[in-house]
From TrEMBL:
Keyword list, A-Z: CBS domain
Name used for this protein in its record: CBS domain-containing protein
Residues of the CBS domain: 8-66, 76-131
Species for this entry: Tessaracoccus lubricantis
CDD domains: CBS_pair_bac_euk (cd04623)
Amino acid sequence: MRINEVIHNKGSSVITARSDQDVRHLVDLLADNRIGAVVITDDGDTVVGIVGERDIVQGLRKFGPSLLDRSIADVMDADVHTCGMDDELAAVATDMTRFRARHLPVIVDGHLAAIVSIGDIVKSRIDQLQTEQEHLVKYLHG
């Protein structure tokens, strides 16, 4: 199974913010959309960073309550690991584990196309295993 199948099932919508916006805006995006990470893109197309819940916690530890008024650039991870639509699910899961990344932006021809989370990967794998089990049961019962 490839990432494009996961994106086909879940959709390609990505919540983004600019690096010059304040962290308060970022927190609102996370809460309002019930998501764990926001992709940071200053032009709406090129990924310059990503911010997840852990980054917010680390920012609070470092800056205290004033974090909310600081720019997203102060807490974002600029070393963004990404994947492509044709990448194998197993390889992406391995990368996510190795990089301790819960979310990976999906890049197509250098442009932001979607985002995939570890939850999306797990759900796809469970669905795949359930389908395989149903086929095996049908085969055994004739």
